[in-house]
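Sample pair:
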Amino acid sequence: MIIRYQGHSFFTITTKDGTVIATDPYHDFYNYPQRNIHADICTVSHHHSDHDGVQSIAGTPLVIDTLGNHPTHSGVHIIGIPTKHDDENGTLRGDNIFFVIEADGMRIGHAGDLGHMLTSEQLKSIGALDVLLLPVGGYYTIDAKVANDVRNHLKPHITIPMHYKTEYNPDMPIASLAECLSGMNEDPQHMPLLRIVREDLKERPNMIVLIPTLP
């Protein structure tokens, strides 16, 4: 499996048989570069423009934007778990879907724009994770402190931060990656992509920062 970061909350996950899963692609969002990416499956955690740019994905991907179990033709299994976009039970920003992607014998969690600490029921529904893609920037999502709590409860092998301030979104009222990492007391490994198999998960650092792929 190869995980690449495209920026914001947008990742591409390529399985060993070549199936490509896109998560929360942005469309015409701030100054993030538009990317010519082909995907077979696309998950959308909620329908805000920085997360539901399905039209920017090449091909005719299977779009998954609902709760529940979603087996796919490619052997990938995706589970959508209900969460909220804020810590006021969704009254501020609505619903959010936490997706668990099962592929290549591993479980990848994409938290979307999670806005609160997970409940015991949600933690149970999510279950054990190998990789957690987690927002850390605050304001619209959980901040670094709550992200640390979420991570400590889920105990993934690897956490990859997302949804933080960058050169492409300097006016967003969210924290920079450096601020978030300081708040999480982390000094992670930086790399352009993550290539993993289940057998080497324990050899990897607990937190990895993926450098966004250039168009």
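The mean pLDDT is 93.
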